[in-house]
Amino acid sequence: MKKKMKLISAILLIAAVCHSQNSKNGTSRSTTNASQKEVVEFTKALNVAVYQEFNLDDKTAFENVDRGFIAPRIDNGDIEGIMRTKLFTTKR
Questions:
Q1: Which string of b and e fits 38-68 if b means at least 16 CB within 10 Å?
Q2: What is d(CA 45, CA 39) in angstroms, rounded to the nearest whole number?
Q3: How wide is the angle at C-alpha 46 spanned by C-alphas 40 and 48, nearest 5°?
Q4: Which residues pair with 24 in a beta bridge?
């Protein structure tokens, strides 16, 4: 619930900032030109592609992040050229 409220707050803040910028520039939503319409259609197409690519109804990833899980360890945590976890493990 807290995350939803933060998301809604962020969206409202962005909308308010955009509205204030449009007011300062003397532009309004009703005056759009062809290039703006192209951008809107392009953005809509990208959003559809994202929704088709990812299963946003599956909340498992969100629940895992809430529990502190970020990503699985690949290659036992070794990062080539940067870190080798074998140096940090101790066998007893």
A1: eeeeeeeeeeeeeeeeeeeeeeeeeeeeeee
A2: 10
A3: 105
A4: none
Instruction: Report whether 76 contacts 85 (CB < 8 A).
Output: yes
User: In the 3-class helix/strand/coil scheme, how is the chain assigned residue by residue?
Assistant: CHHHHHHHHHHHHHHHHHHHHHHHHCCCCCCCCHHHHHHHHHHHHHHHHHHHHCCCCCCHHHHHHHCCCCCCCCHHHCECCCECHHHCCCCC
17-61 confidence digits (pLDDT tens): 666 655 555 555 556 688 888 888 999 999 899 888 888 888 888
Q: How far apart are CA 76 and CA 91, in angstroms?
A: 15
Q: How far apart are CA 75 and CA 84, in angstroms?
A: 10
